[in-house]
Amino acid sequence: MAEIDTETARRVAHLARIAVAEADLPALAAELSGILAFMEELNAVDVGGVEPMVSVTPMRLRRRADAVTDGGDPAAILANAPDAREGYFAVPKVVE
């Protein structure tokens, strides 16, 4: 197990731009050592046959049929448009 000394803790605090008082450096070093020890424990776990997952609860996405439609009701859709002409959305010209 790798032990973090106070000099390394001081350097980590400097790199992270964290102001740590000199008296708090031994506690920070101990906490960082504990984190490294826990990481070593995690690395020791055999996860060879475990499939990666996003959640502990199995979920399936609801999917709709991939079918071409006419878009529903074009008149109702165009009713929301600030400017509609001849059944299409009208937008200002941006390229000259």
The percent range for helix content is 25-40%
Mean model confidence by pLDDT: 89
Number of continuous helical runs: 3
End-to-end Cα distance: 67 Å
Strand-pairing-aware structural class:
mainly alpha
Flag low-confidence runs.
none
> How does the major sheet shape up?
2 strands, antiparallel
Specify the overall morphology.
elongated
Note the run of SSEs as H and E. HHHEE
Number of strands: 2
Task: Describe the strand arrangement of the main beta sheet, using strand numbers.
Answer: 1-2
Tell me what portion of residues adopts beta-strand conformation: under 5%
Radius of gyration: 30 Å
Q: Would you write up a description of this structure?
A:
The structure is a single chain. The protein is mainly alpha-helical and 96 residues long. It has a domain at 6-44. It has helices at residues 6-15, 25-44, 74-78, and strands at 84-85, 88-89. It has a two-stranded antiparallel sheet with strand order 1-2. β1 and β2 form a beta hairpin. α1 packs across α2. The model has no long low-confidence stretch (mean pLDDT 89).
